[in-house]
Amino acid sequence: MTRTTPTPHPALALAPEVAEALAAGRPVVALESTIISHGMPYPRNVEMAREVERIVRDGGATPATIAILDGVARIGLSADELELLATHEDVAKVSIRDLPHIMATKRHGATTVASTMRLAALAGIKVFVTGGLGGVHRGAENSMDVSADLTELSTTDVAVVSAGVKSILDIGRTLEVLETLGVPVVTFGVNEYPSFYSRESGFTSPMRSDSIEELADMMRIKWDLGLAGGISVTNPVPAEDEMTPAEISELIDQAVAEAEQRGIVGKDITPFLLGRIVELSDGKSLDTNIALVRNNARLGAALAKAYAAVAPVN
Ligand code: PSU
Ligand code: MN
Description:
Elements: E1 12-14, H1 16-23, E2 28-31, H2 34-37, H3 44-58, E3 62-69, E4 72-75, H4 79-87, E5 91-94, H5 99-104, E6 108-111, H6 113-123, E7 127-129, H7 140-143, H8 148-155, E8 159-162, H9 171-180, E9 185-188, E10 207-209, H10 212-224, E11 231-234, H11 245-261, H12 269-280, H13 284-310
Parallel strand pairs: 1-4, 2-3, 2-7, 5-6, 7-8, 8-11, 9-10, 9-11
Antiparallel strand pairs: 3-4, 3-6
Helix pairs in contact: 3-4, 3-13, 6-8, 10-13, 11-12
Binding site for substrate: 93, 113, 147-149
Protein name: Pseudouridine-5'-phosphate glycosidase
GO cellular component, one term: cytoplasm
């Protein structure tokens, strides 16, 4: 049987190795860039970006970091381009609605979970690794601040590997919205839904799987049934790297209070909170963040390989 692969959307610029891997039906893992430009300080951000690509390669898959450079949607970046995203002072945070504007004005943009998912899907990539998902913000019952990551998960056929939802967000309401949107939330290897920095959240995960092959089967079955949208694969931070809720929760409360006092709203909230938590924890939260992204890259590469083995031949 010969495999023909869907042609990537013509507006995208694929790195040659990514194009070759996709054409051959080999596993590819998408990676986001907001985490580089707006999620971590330099130089740890670019070190993390390079290391995650190496982990994906060591796991037998091709990494494809996604960003907008000079208005072009790029799938797979060079080392110099990762450095640019980590250092350039004018890289916009680009979620779904920002894509047309950044592309029309030919600027640089770092893509969030939502926009990375969409561009990955347009390229034909089915597995995407990140750190944390956006979600329902605390106080969203008044502010209506709900990340477009959630609506994107309801429509775009990509499995997103994350370490859960940070408690800078309202985890319970985020899980409720994901249920309403028909998004499977499946946690790998444990019953409790993790909260990014911690393996605990106080919420039981809606689903659990102990096998990567089973996760790949969920992807195949969901899309074969015509159930549009993604799957949130949740991978708890390794125990040796976690910060307990007792360690982190006061720092988060303080950062959230400061954001409120300073009137920070909208897309600036998440980068502000992440930066403040790194400062307030003397860098410990950054170590945890990097450790959980590494861990997700290992699972994502294995999942991309397992899915390539069961994916339908087009
Ligand atoms: N959580 C992190 N690091 C990040 C983000 C979330 O630990 O960098 C980024 C992701 O790109 C995510 C985005 O998609 O923040 C969500 O932002 P918003 O709430 O504005 O949609
Ligand atoms: Mn928001």
